[in-house]
Amino acid sequence: MTQPVHHLVMGPPEHGVIRCARELASATASPVISDFHDLRDDIPIHVHFTDRLFGRTAGEAADAFVSVVKRHRAPITVTLHDIPQVSDGHAFEARTRCYRQVIDCASAVVVSSMHERLLLDDVANHPVDVRIVPLPIHSATPHPARRDAMRNVVGVLGFVYPGKGHEEVLEAMRSLDAAVDLLSIGSASPGHETMIDELACAATQLGRSFDSTGFVPDADLDELLRSVAIPVAFHRHLSASGSINSWIAAGRRPLVPRGRYVEEIEANSPGTLWIHENSIDGLAAAMIEALDHPDRTWRQPGAVPYPTLHQAATLYSALFREQSVLKAQELPDGRWVVPGNRWDLVPPVDRNPSVSVVIPYFEQQRRLELVLTALTVQTHPASLIQVIVADDGSPIAPDVDAFRSALDITVVRQSDLGFRAAAARNLGASAAHGEILCFLDADTVPEPGYIAESTRLLAALPDALAVGRRRHADLEGWAARDVTEWLGGRSAGPPELTEPLWLRDGYAHSRDLLDADRRSYRYIISAVMSCTRQLFTEIGGFDESIVGYGGEDWDFAHRAYDAGAVLAHLPRAVAWHDGPEWAERTGGDRERKNLEAMMLASRITDPAARTHGLLYAVPELVVVVDSAGHTSASLLRTVGSVLRERDCVVWIHGPDAAELRRPWGDADPRVKQGQPSDTGRSHAVVHVRGPVLFGEHALRRLLATGADRMTVDVGGTGVVELSTSRSNTRAARWAAALGRAPEDVADDLFGCTHRTGVEFGFSIGEQQPNLAW
């Protein structure tokens, strides 16, 4: 997406949604379109939508919106305001249909609160990419110049309409002195003009006066809000509130009823609200107390409203960048680096790389001859193929003399110290001189195009870890000449056996691993695996401490993924395994599989492998907490909340870290001081600044987004930053070649999302929390 996002803003300038839209467009340096006819279909657009602006009815609004955007070719993002909720009564169903039609047109949807995000669950009829960007709170002087000029009134800010709370406020004012009057700050909502007179009559019956200001220009609003004795926001159908924000911006601490949205504001901006029981009696009691303690109706020292306009604009700008198409980047040597796992973005490279085929072997002479025979008829140039047979301690060395005239073949051997396929493959790789390593098992016969198909992608994409298609056949009794006849098309092939369904499904559901995620290592099998020698060396090869059948390929693939490898399945690179899959041959061996699972759990940070409550030397997550600005108590609460997540280690970093930790008196091995030196085996690193509190499963929710790089705002002072080992390592590998900083390369290849803490259960804690019990 090369053009800037244009904001489609249509409606009266005094409307709160329109004012918000124009402010955000200006803050994000986005052009504004005010007429449908000015909208080109190739320009990315953002729309602030409420049905009340696009039509007289919800149906008209939906038709108007869809008619404009249905042929749009560029990304469309939408901020939804006034989310339908059951309290809409008879209008709920029509408004729900309207919002569903709008959502269906959008590539991403923004709402203004987690409360609205939950309401949207009742509206959307399919999964939606939803972001939360709270309404911005403008900065203002927190205290008035003259308290003696304050008016003895209860102020209710915003459009007048049923559900705004004016009637309930009047009812609660029965407990107040009759000299306290009600002031409605704002105009009547269209269609509800009669409510002004109705409220005046109701106030008269209660023996007090009522006044309505009508529309108040922005230039005069703050001064008016500071003049009110009791600021109140008693909305009955709240979804997101610009009026509450306006009170806060004016330095006031409005009286608000406890509820989901109000508690969300308090989590984002602690100390900015006066929260009371959600009832008329609760409001009455709070108003009485406010008259007795007027200082409490002003923002308290140290309270930091969130978000500012700049912070909200940053969140929007990050969303717009996410809609951009990430591109492959060319290396100086003509190879490519791709974003994410997008191996499909690599242009073809017209060259044949040198290849070393590594075959682990143990007492499989007949089967080895079948494999070597198949390697003599490869379509890849024979002069570029090296074959290495890595003998895992057979009593008699493999006999390959018959193939030396056709193949560049080497035999390397190691002692028989048990089944050591990992060590044998490493031994073979150490003798390789090819650019590409192709691993083939000694019982797996490649088709003639196997090496050519395996290396085509690898020649262009040095980060690729590719797996071919392993099919199964009954080769019992077959000799080398049978393979020659079969692969030459002069005879029928062997009886085909069942192909493992779990592999076929895994490749199909992931589009040949194009949609690979952190669990896709399970679909990389070493019997038909290929990668560049450079990548193999950087990863460190197979883990030679793994002895016994199975597991070494999962361990290798998992480490490769965390090291930035691009996983790819090459369905045309076919090799035929002699016999059925292991589980079908034996019916399974639970004891052996359990030993393999226990071995892998200590190495692989996949949560599915670690379900037994143990702690391992390599944690899934490394969390670095900056101690700056903390007290000992606040740091304890932050670290303790992080450790709600079992599979993590916390590092406290800062010059005062040791001093702040000393009063704890703990001996928790999961808490360390300083900076971690090597986090490459862990899935991700999380940096925390400010007194952030992690709610239950907050880190797990963060990981569930699948983002490789993310910044999370937590209120006005807290920041949580996540980066995966995968993104860090790939960026570090190519930064010098691309002539750029690793952080910039990582952002280009993996993007960087920017979200808000309420989405994941993060909140801001106190500087001096109460630890007493």
Automatic annotation (TrEMBL):
Its EC number is 2.4.-.-. One of its GO terms (molecular function) is glycosyltransferase activity. Residues 356-485 form the Glycosyltransferase 2-like domain. Keywords: Glycosyltransferase, Transferase. It comes from the Bacteria. Residues 519-566 form the Galactosyltransferase C-terminal domain. Residues 663-682 are annotated as: Disordered. The keyword Transferase applies. InterPro entries: Galactosyl_T_C, Glyco_trans_2-like, Glycosyltransf_2, Nucleotide-diphossugar_trans. The keyword Mitochondrion does not apply. This is Glycosyltransferase. It comes from Rhodococcoides yunnanense.
